[in-house]
Amino acid sequence: MHWAFKSDSVHGNVVFNLMRDPIDDLAVFAQGYHNAGRKLADELASAAGYSDYDGYPVLFLYRHALELYLKAFVYRGAKLVHLLDPDEMDTTELFKDHSLSRLLPGVKVVLDALGWMGGFKTLHLSSFRDFVDLVKGIDEVDKNSVAFRYPVKKDRQVRSEERRVGKECRS
């Protein structure tokens, strides 16, 4: 292993496969990306101003965290649902792509099976329908998790039209 990745100290090490089964680390990875995104977002929010390119990593980190959280929820939820009804859910294609909207049916199955759909509410979302709209809106901007990482496609064509993502501009 390269010297840059070795350390004799416990502090500063990064452990992979913490749970012994990598799929069980999805939520841990999601939390890491979420925390990093929040730190960068807080830094930008407290700055007098920032460049557009300073926001791309924040958008990517939040989007990637959401994808991993959803996959973790569907996977762990499927394990619970299988206890209730083994034919209810299939997770074999969970990692097929990076679409968030594609995960929504699995999220709904888990919420329904556990009786949590009626209580679905957060600080900014009052229903599962609001959550679906949010996730689909994110997919409209970045369906395959590349829009915030690369400005062009492999064929050098523009990735997407100019868009404003974030707080509404007010004068």
Task: Name a few traits of the molecule.
mainly alpha, 4 helices, single chain, 171 residues
Describe the protein's topology.
Elements: H1 26-46, H2 52-84, H3 104-113, H4 128-142
Describe what you observe in this structure.
The protein has 171 residues and is an all-alpha fold. Helices cover 46% and strands 0% of the residues. The protein is built from four helices and no strands. It has helices at residues 26-46, 52-84, 104-113, 128-142. Helix 1 (26-46) runs antiparallel to helix 2 (52-84) and helix 2 (52-84) crosses helix 3 (104-113). The chain is globular. The model has no long low-confidence stretch (mean pLDDT 84).
Summarize the structure.
This protein is an all-alpha fold. 46% of the residues lie in helices and 0% in strands. It is built from four helices and no strands.
Query: Could you tell me the number of beta strands?
Result: 0
Poorly predicted segments: none
Summarize the main sheet: none
The Rg value, from CA coordinates, equals 19 Å
Mean pLDDT: 84
Query: Shape from CA axes?
Result: globular
User: Roughly how much helix do the residues carry, as a percent range?
Assistant: 40-55%
Regarding quaternary structure, what we see is single chain
The span between the termini is: 54 Å
Instruction: Give the class from helix and strand content and strand pairing.
Output: mainly alpha
Task: Name the helix and strand elements from N-terminus to C-terminus, one letter apiece.
Answer: HHHH
Quote the beta fraction. Answer: under 5%
Number of helices: 4
